[in-house]
């Protein structure tokens, strides 16, 4: 970036800066005068141009900058070397950022004067108001971003007199431009819809037609190289295509992760709301301040024992950062939770961080698209996802255009899968850029300490070493909780005081202990409160132990223990319906929700029920149940419980899964959009569908894996219905992994058995047909069956489900081809594809030019590569379609070549090997020639 500066001698000089060494500068926004009168880059280099009328603007900007204590300033007329094409192109793409990063932006209004000749009639409006409203500056294309990008925009008359800034003039600017106030106040532009942003530029003009679009690049945060000569329509089309590709990519990231903003809301909600007074102490803490304000302190590690309030502290810090930092700065965060397998892995952490970064600064999607355009959605979840995501994130964090960024990860100790990799990444990346600051929290684990030790620039904040602050915060929490209890339960003063005193003396600076006791008191009659107070021992484990003791004494002790064991071992929090399906003893009261809620209540404060989902109150409760209470809750070991969950899962799935559970009817109905039926037929089996194989892997699995065992029976009777259900649950990738796990288990079982053969075939089946079924659930019964080899066990088992309306089916070979799986979803040419979990596509398609046509009788299909198919019907009304042609009535190929359609309704998904390079349709017949030279025909009823 070139910047101007007036030297001591009053001479104007220009200097070039790298992106990361740019000093503080002012920037000018103005309306260009006659081209010949503007001072150019060349003029400055040759120290000429002072006689041009445009020089006055330079003087103005330089003088104003000097008054504001800024040495450097930037003006578009003379700070871009237009002779250098690459520099010019870079400048067009960087302009928004340069305006945004400027310390001051001065708008020079050459058509507004402080004391105009004609006076303003409106007594209340300043004299310049009418000129201001009519100023050409508001009608130009580039000035839109110059108004929106900078934090501070000041308006000056041609006499250099300041009129105000964009905040003091916000009402006028809103009335002139129609741009909503929040956008003028600096709210991130990504918060406004594409259409709304397009509306802001309506009626604005640019001298060069393409600039109408190029001046929007920053407003949409899109990287697009200018191609002058492409015309206004061409440029606009390219912008729209880019935006569409970006939106699709962001949606695909979101499909593979939960939204951390929702996780935060849920956590605050399940924990009873965030109390500001109980986290505010951190803002004045010396370590926190050092991290916040010292550029050399980049990683803050907050550590403390269970229940000390780390998670809520981080929630509070996120809120405070959001409030206090610049609107353009990025805050991205992730809450690990060991009890939920969707958010307890290192890859999930990166996905969540990445997602929040790209929705705040969409141009960062560039780094994702480098890979995503080749690999599609699998990029975020296949076996190599970790490597791809670390590379993407590392590049993003080094991008000189990255806004100041705060990355926050809560509960590293709850990252169950690949914690060491995550720690190594954090330790390395936290030193990488001065613009990026990290906060992580965890328990006092030496393993974490050891790895974070590797990070430079770190600050440690131990809650135990800040006992006074934490203690004060816990006391505030106690007061608030007890007041609420007293009000709800109508405590008299002595009871109120006794509860307060007891909690204060025994809390031991542990929020969670207070929360658990209050939960118990909530369910205690007022008359028993004082008696009960003595029974709450200090310390979390002691409290858990007492809760366990109470459960053991209840009439439903066995049932409660079974429920606790189950909840401690499931891979994500489950719904009430799923709970009922998985606990046999609840079968008899399945419809009695009140009784089920009552039993959950009997499990003491170990469980919380919110929005129909059962949660373990805290990770420390899970730790307690699985270790210290294992003798009582899991007397026969965890394997037995996993096995019981597996058996119940198979039962509930066998009972509920069937063809077309959601009544989609149309064979091409997409899995992306459908209305969830009420009641949801999958409500009780959703968890089982996704996790039964995981429970098998953790169980003592021998008996269920025998020939004729429960799993074989399940697969024989329900395999296709299960795949349909997985598609409806948007979990086909998980299903693929499950089948890979199952296959590797049976592989290790030695001799060939019928079960082993079935699992192998079923694994091939889902790998090959993943795309079709994931796209449209009912294609499990159409494309998947028809394009499986005739000897496929799954095909034979589900012959009854094959569509009757296809009377001539594609001829298939006996056995599976070498193609294991095709990775769908990429939109560009593919240079490299890999997927270690599911194998590589071994077949390469070589596209040959080929023509296909029916002969004059309609009975023979000819191609120029010499293959002929004989058609049963005698038709002569033949049309030949090149594959890229648009929709036809009757039987046809979709314009993207992936479907056979009828009257534009999708019927049959074509696996990539079977997609046509050209096709011929005749009445009910369609002939297809593929790139590999294969020819096949289908006839529809
Ligand atoms: N600022 C706060 N506002 C409201 N509740 C709080 C606050 N801080 C802590 N709590 C209460 O204390 C409980 C424990 O806090 P939190 O879950 O944050 O602990 P933690 O240190 O993250 O535990 P762990 O690391 O073991 O998961 C919460 O469930 C909540 O009830």
UniProtKB/TrEMBL annotation:
Repeat is among the record's keywords: yes
SUPFAM superfamilies in the record: P-loop containing nucleoside triphosphate hydrolases
The keyword Cell cycle belongs to this UniProt entry's keyword annotation: no
Pfam families found in the cross-reference section: HET, NPHP3_N, WHD_GPIID
Keywords, ordered alphabetically: Repeat
Source species, domain of life: Eukaryota
Domain NACHT: 298-519
Name of the protein: HET-domain-containing protein
